[in-house]
Description:
About 50% of the residues lie in helices and about 5% in strands. The strands form 3 sheets. The chain has a 3-stranded antiparallel β-sheet. Strands 1-2 form a two-stranded antiparallel sheet. Strands 3-7 form a two-stranded antiparallel sheet. The chain has 20 helices and 7 strands. Helix 3 (about 45-60) runs antiparallel to helix 6 (about 110-135). By secondary structure, it is mostly helical. A hairpin with a 4-residue loop joins strand 5 (about 375-380) and strand 6 (about 385).
Amino acid sequence: RTLMKKIYFNIISLMMAAISFSSCSDWLDINPSDEIKEEFLFNNGDGFQTALNGIYRQMASFSLYGSNLTWGIVDAWGQAYSLEKAPTSGAGQAMHKIASLKFSNSQLTPTTDNMWNSAWNTIANCNNLIQQTEKADSTLFYKSEYERQLILGEAIGLRAYMHFDLLRIYAPAPSANPGSTTYIPYVNYYPAYVNENISVPECLEHIISDLKKAQAILYKLEVEGEKPRSLKPKDRFVNAASGKNLFYALRGYRLNYWAATALLARVYLYAGMKQEAYNECKILIDEEKKYGFFKAVTSTYSGPRNIEAGNIKMYENIIFGLYSPTELVDWDAAINHNSDGADEYYQFYLCWSSDMVEEYFGEEKDKDWRCKYQFEPKYYDEYYRPLKYYKQSESSEFGPVNNKTIPMIRMSEIYYIAAECVYDPADPAKVEEAKGYLKTVKQGRGISKPDFGDVSSTEKFMKVLIDDERREFVGEGQTLFIYKRLNRILPSYDHGDIPAINENFVLPKPESESNIK
């Protein structure tokens, strides 16, 4: 545990170095007139590392994936909770407003404006780093060309990641037939003062192109080069090197080759390109069968995968996560646990109602570890409070990982995508293959003998699949996009069924879009 604390202290120190170059509101002053600062940052390999870590640090902030794009407003918009017991002040205000589709409400727009600005600022920093890395001499870097390519591949992948979520939020899904209407730009150069909005298909083409570039670069480094032995769960998130080698360790907190592949599968599915999505999934599924590094199983024996002992985030299943030094659990405490100690009825928190639990867990409620260990029954089981971001003791076995990890993409999602892509009600073999992928996830969540019932039609199979996805992605910002991608009515326990129309599924852009640089 002493070693673990040392590891996390080193990471915090490295990341804090990234924000020491500028004000607390912006890790890197991207004003091109500030030539001295930029020249200083990129005059050696350490500066490039600092710049990349600064991008990850910004992505983990409250305005992006530290809250808004995971358990915060995007999950509230996706009706991932019942907000009946959620606080109506502080961050809770914005969640209530977006859940009720009041997109222009003054209690929401400061939050969404900040999200928009932070996302484009992150993209600007990615572009600056990409351009600086492309022209840099490999002798600047501790591991020469290997390190230069590693930084380049990650930065290109992160640029695509941010654009994709902006597209999912501020433009219609391809299934809604957006046509040639333009929505957001794809900004791939720095500085960018003129940015033309493009259509959804064009934006997806750019995203896919960037992810394929990142995938190709990282494949040469992490598969052909270092081999996947470094991807064991503890190597990805816990064990690490020290000194100069620290930057190359803990690949679970970085956009690695397998993460780029998983993201390609996610993007292809969103684009309606099912065969391409399935092909990317098969790469990961075949790797999983060979190495078992992203196992969709959290066993009940006493050991490193024991969810009952506190492995609440099931971290070995995470392909890519963000590292959040302290804020993650502090923010959750503020909105989800700030009234602890009060009379139980007067405690405020995000929750699932008992009706939601019954609908989405059904007869598997008492077997599914996600219900048993990731939720806490409250007020005579009338409400269930999610515990995915609840602070654990730092001296506990899983505390250091749980308290600091923001799940970005899991192996379970890859099985879901593969199941949806391969399912064909006219082909019994395809039906069984699809059920097999879903069975893998369910068995990995404590349901030893899952009963799928009648899945003889696409609609019936999708109902089973979506119900399991809703269990899996609580607090991870994916629920909204499941329904949006499928152009499907969004069920809500607070506001009734929400029609699948653009007015409900597309967030208006801020009045000022000036922070795209």
